[in-house]
Please model this.
Amino acid sequence: MSANGYAKDVLVSTDWLAEHLGDPGLVVAEVDENPDLYDEGHIPGAVKLHWQDDLQDKLVRDVVSKEEFERLLGARGIANDTTVVLYGDKNNWFAAYAYWYLKLYGHDRVRLLDGGRQKWIEEDRELTTEVPEPAPVAYTARERDESIRVRRDEVLAKLHAAGVSLVDVRSPQEYSGELIAPPGYEQEGASRTGHIPGARSIPWATAVRDDGTFKAADELRELYAGKGVTSDKEVLAYCRIGERSAHTWFVLRELLGYERVRNYDGSWTEWGNLVDVPIER
Model:
């Protein structure tokens, strides 16, 4: 049991990271929704991972191939035994997505910087515009771990099934159908508004404090249990494109130790465009 009662030791503090920057076997990676932020200033030595350019197949709405993933990590100086500390903007939205992604391909040593980019900057810690040039290394990925990912056909098959909790982590306005997507993302929405039938609304941001750090385990457990999402159930989380739901997947699986949690990365941009599937408002 780690600090704050978490099930796994998967977070590092800003103090810890400041003390360990430059350690052998440690690579820090920034993953932002806004890729320009990295160029404006990042944690010294941090490499850049772009959630769209690096972590999305260019032709298929899917994760990159195993071979492309191996090339990506090797080019960033990440070997199989490297500890990767991920952080980013928006309270680690896309850093959590990258964490899920690395787990999908079996990387063991992954951590999130608790509080992310926001907390590092608010503490007046050092930023740099210098881009590191890591020496390329060999990386061998495992086959995809599909046990942490759920696809549309299985979501449809499990609607209203006993022992299954669907969690909609979007804003209440998206869940109700008032908004098709968050403000500023309207062009990336679906053709219909609403939510998947039976889904509980538990916005991702309710899991973090004002400074972006995660709430303690007891608070988190109470938050989800209050909506009927408990550790004995299979949990399927979704948002708009899978990044906010990866954040909730991280909370439930890694921090609380729920054993059966999967991220529906197709999320509402897929479900809201499918022909002949049910929605609720």
